[in-house]
Fold this sequence. Notes:
This protein has helices spanning 4-17, 23-40, 51-66, 85-91, 104-113; strands at residues 73-77, 96-100. It is mainly alpha-helical.
Amino acid sequence: MWNDEEQKLFLEIIKKYKPQYSAEHLNALLKYALLVITENEKINLTAITSPEEFAIKHIIDSLVALEYLEGNSVIDVGTGAGMPGLIWAIIKTQNDYVLLDSLAKRVAFLENTKT
């Protein structure tokens, strides 16, 4: 789990690259990131665990791709820990998303995350 300074750094990086997102969006992205980091200790979801790298390589990369997303129905094949699909769903809530992964442990994580 990240400490307060690490959480602040994570949010500052996102705000720097994507200033258009609301505090609600940022808090939801932080909540998601903390969940991934916490669960990662139990079920290896990602090798990227530092706040800086997570913000840039997972969140910012997903948000850049979101700018090119067309249509209202999206499938994220091989989503892993839910990237980019869950990140997109946090920002563009009006779309329908299907997250698909081949490993049961990841699917279980995703099922628990959506609630």
